[in-house]
Design goal:
The chain is an alpha/beta fold. The chain has a single domain, classed as Nucleotidyltransferase, domain 5 (2-Layer Sandwich). The protein is built from 7 helices and 6 strands; from the N terminus they run ββααβαβαβααβα. It has a 6-stranded mixed sheet with strand order 5-4-1-2-3-6.
């Protein structure tokens, strides 16, 4: 059995976010992955600019500086991850952030990963929806689109830091696409199996 850790960078309904980056970190084992972020946080200095990071409720790409980002990504790069990247150009559109659209996006991300790794059956995703009914609808739709039975976990990144790992990867890819800053992407580049860019308009046409 394989696992996929999933998160995204960017907001569907915000037209200011020109692109959204979805990432799946595929791995054979979850052993000790939940210890990576706590170890990074433990090593943070108590004083100086990085001292503020030590007091954060959670260590995320958007809330940390360059040094912490690089250190975290370097640890990720040493792990046995296979990365699948989906970049959506919104073309200035607002995307309704509901179970249907989100399920379609995640299924599009997972389809090539499952094709390459048929034993990928356990999905761990940063909790996107507050209500259980929305999460259950999302779970059903993803499995229906992919025609595959999956065990889907929605985790709060403040309670389980394992979902902070795809957050750092998604942030790195967003920096590359939105700011042309390739520094972070270069650290994890060797792990990337597939990197696909498309538009929301094309995905909607495929969905129909």
């Amino acid at each position: 059995m394989r696992y996929a850790l999933i998160d995204e960078s960017g907001r569907l309904a915000d037209p200011a976010d020109k692109t959204i980056v979805f990432v799946a970190l595929v791995t054979k084992s979850l052993l000790n992955l939940d210890k990576i972020i706590p170890q990074v946080k433990k090593k943070l200095p108590r004083k100086g600019k990085r001292g503020k990071e030590k007091t954060l409720a959670e260590i995320k790409f958007s809330k940390t500086g360059e040094k912490t980002r690089c250190q975290t990504l370097q640890i990720i790069a040493q792990k046995d991850f296979k990365l699948f990247i989906l970049v959506i150009d919104k073309e200035g559109r607002k995307i309704i952030d509901d179970s249907v659209n989100y399920a379609h996006l995640i299924a599009t991300l997972l389809k090539p990963a499952i094709k390459r790794f048929p034993d990928l059956t356990h999905i761990i995703i940063d909790r996107h929806f507050t209500y259980i009914l929305h999460r259950e609808k999302f779970n059903d739709l993803v499995q229906k689109i992919l025609n595959k039975k999956l065990f889907v976990e929605h985790l709060d990144s403040q309670q389980n830091t394992i979902v902070s790992l795809p957050d750092f990867v998604a942030g790195s890819m967003a920096e590359a696409y939105n700011k042309k800053n390739l520094k972070y992407k270069k650290i994890i580049k060797k792990l990337i199996i597939l990197e696909k860019k498309t538009t929301w308009r094309k995905l909607v046409q495929q969905k129909r």
